Every structure is written in structure tokens, then in C-alpha cells.
TrEMBL record, chain A:
Domain ABC transporter: 4-247
UniProt protein name: ABC transporter ATP-binding protein
Superkingdom classification of source: Bacteria
Organism: Ruthenibacterium intestinale
InterPro entries per record: AAA+_ATPase (IPR003593), ABC_transporter-like_ATP-bd (IPR003439), ABC_transpr_TagH-like (IPR015860), Bact_Polysacc_Export_ATP-bd (IPR050683), P-loop_NTPase (IPR027417)
Xref: Pfam families: ABC_tran
Signal sequence extent: none
MF terms (GO), sorted A to Z: ATP binding
Amino acid sequence: MNMIEVKNVSMRFNMAKEKHESLKEYFLAAVQGRLQFEEFYALRDVSFNVEKGDFYGLIGLNGSGKSTLLKIISGVFKPSSGSTVVHGTIAPLIELGAGFDMDLTARENIYLNGTVLGMTPKYIDSKFDEIVEFSELQDFLDVPLKNYSSGMVSRIAFAIATVTKPDVLIADEILSVGDFLFQEKCEKRMRELMSGGTTVILVSHSIEQIERMCNKVTWLEKGRVRMTGDMRTVCDAYKALDQGGAT
Amino acid sequence: MSMLKAYCKDFWRYRFLLQNLIGRDFKLKYRRSVLGVLWSVLNPLLMNVVMVAVFSSILDMRGAGIENFSVYLIIGQLLFSFFSEATSSCMSSMLAAAPLIKKVYIPKYIFPLEKAGFALVNCLFSFIALIIVMIFTGAPLHPTAILAVYPLLTLFVFSLGIGLILAAATVFFRDIIHLWGVFITALMYFSAIFYDPFTMGGSGGAILQRFIGYNPMYWYITAFRAAVLDGELLSWNMIWVCGLCAILALAAGLFVFRKEQDKFVLHI
């Protein structure tokens, strides 16, 4: 069964040569015919399917469109053409700490972030201890988040996002923060979710991590799909590129 | 109609988020201030004292027929500052929500709605100031005061509609923020807050009497005064002008906002 269908997705950004943030500038430029845009395709005609239970990896160099693609799948961007369908609930972990207010305490943020992800306050009440326990931040619950280290923020964020059993978990580079013990804990948690039927999409620059966790991989290059298939084949080809570039 | 239904469904799903966001604004507004929420009451109260002093003794501008000038004035003040706060905070709501909507999908109209809701909560607190002034000046409590709910609710819808338009426009042109500040000050002087155009003499009075009916704020404030201060039923004119302005503003707001919302994330 397909959980996520990405069909011919293209994403075009208009890169204004100069930014017009005021009416006067805009009209002046429009009158003088200077309103020019450079079109930039972050994604071109990308298609793939993620099946239920897949641990799907996205790899590619910087600027290949991985994060843009994740944002399209999670609904933040609307693609310029093409479509994406997601069957079921999504828990997006695109940059940890989205939806946190740095002036509020961790306790208040757990409720705020939980409702951002569509949970009810009652549900958060019942899972509150579990979240706190997972993040190991019992002693800092009533400290404003701005006094946290980035590792501590990511612990809380990961704990909240994975406390539900989402159908799809979208994870962008999240495991690069936190110490190795916490990374192991996160990987374990993601495996648990998967055995419970969650489909995961993971973006990572750590090819070892992709090899360790994913079963299928899509390789993006400059916004196009370079290769898609099972993890071994794609990862070997990707690593060959690495060596090819070095020699 | 299906559009409205989708809005309502979303609204129901995200009601807790709305509640939490309003709670957050509330906490942040009064965090670290000793008197806290009391300022919502004290602020309009002190402003009222200042304005009564200025307009009744120094400038002597108040209309001759206004019986209880303090109450007359504070009603205008409270409703207008609600409108001003709601529209101004709606206006910058999308910019303020940028970190959030760049990373998670949330229906975007939640943010203007939250700001208007927060302004309403604030306004309800500040009605304590109105009650204090009424008690202090010995104004009678009319049973018709309950009718004031109508202008208040329609004003909320009206402000939300205007706020949605402003929020969408501000994403593309930040100039709106500065323009609106000037506009709202001009509108304030034209909303019969500290004068009654129909007891004012001279050419100024004549001009005001002729044109003030085109200002929706005048109608909301007047309807509220009729119910609370004069103990009268709302006239038909008040009912339909307040209602129609609210519906038109909301429809226009939803239309503009919906049309532009997918582009927001690329511009903030």
C-alpha cells in the first residue's frame, strides 16, 4: 500500500533580482519594466512512492532539494506543478523546535507544540510524563526555553513529535543534534514506531545512518531524481560519486 | 458554502491550538509586570481620566448634550482601542508566525483569528474599567445593557475581516504597517469618541453630521452607547449597519486571504 505518492512534483521559486518590500519600490520597478525574476527550479519532475512500513531515505548533496521536497510532502509548500498525496497523519520533524516559543517554559511549550501537531490537551496530559521522561529534562521543566542548549531543545521536540503514533514521520537532519547516547535513543524510538506501522522518511547527510536504518533510498541531484531503489544499490552508487569526485 | 464548511472543520480541529496561542500571548504580555493583567483595567481607566480632564476643562470641546461624559468617552475609547489593537496585531500576525508556518502545516488564518481573539479577551477585561467609571459617576445600569453584546460581536467580526485583508497585504508590502498607523489615528478623530456630532455646532459639526454615518466605527460605538449609556433598544439602522459591515468585511477578508495564502510562505 502506498503511504506517500509524489507525482511529477516541480517547485519553482522566483528569485527576484532585487527585493521589493515596499509599495513605492515595487511600483517604480513595475513602471520602469524592471520587475524581473530569475526562475529557479528547486525540484523538477520528481516522482516516487513510499510504501507502508518503509524506512525511506533521501540523500543528495547540499542544495539538491531534499528539504524542499520534505516541506512539500508535509504541506508547508504547495508545489508549482504536480501533486503529493499522503494517506494518514504526519508528524513533521523539519528542523526541531519549530513551534516553540523561546520565552515560554518547557512545560508551556510541550502544550503549545503538542497542539500545533494537532493533539488535544487531554492527550498531552496523559502523555506528559512520558515526554518528560524521554527527554530527560525533569529538572528544567520550568525554565524558559531560551536558556536551554540546542541539544536540550531538540530532545524535547523529538519527544513530543514521537509520543503519538503517526502514520508518517518526516525527519530532516534531526539526529545530527544531541549526544550519541541520545541519538541512539532516537533511533531506537524510530524503530519502535516502525514496528508499530509508522512509515518514516529520513533526510541525512550521514550515509552510515542511512545505511543503518533505511531500506529504500532516493538520490536527488540538482532537483531531479538521480536514482531510486533499494538502499544498497543507491548508497553504493552515491559513495562511488564521492570517490569519483576525490580522484 | 463548502469553503465555509472546510473553515469550520479546520477551526474545530485546531481549537486547542487557538486556545494555547491566546494563552501564550496573555502570559507573555504580562510576564514580569508586577500588576499583570490589572493593567488591562488600569490603562483605559487612567487614559479616561486624562482625556476627561483634557476635553472637559482645558479644551472644552465636549458637546453640550452629553450627560455623562466620562462614560460616553470610555465606551468610545474601549471599542476603538479594541478595533485598533485587533487590526494592528492581525496585520503583523503572519510575519510573527513565520518561524512556525515555514516548518509545519497549520491553516494560516489561525494566526489572525488568534490575534483578534486575544484583543477581544483583553477588551473584555477592560470592561471592568467601564464598570468602575459607571459606578463612580453614578450611572444607572439599564437592562438594555445586555444588548451591547451585538455591537461587540459584530465589531469583532468586522475587525477580523479587516485584519485578514491587512495580514495578507502586509506579507507582500511591509509599508502597510506604517500606513495603517496613520490611517487609524485619522479614523479615531472621525469616530465620535470624545464628541457628539449631533450636538456640535458650527461648520465642523455640519460636516461631521453629514459624513460620520459612513464610518462603521461610529455605528458600533453608537449602538454600544445606546444600549449601555442611554438604556435604549438598538435602532434598525444600528442593527443592519453593524451586521452588514461585519459580514462584508469578513467575506472580503476570507476571499483575499484564501486567494493569497499559498504564497505567504515564500514571502516571509
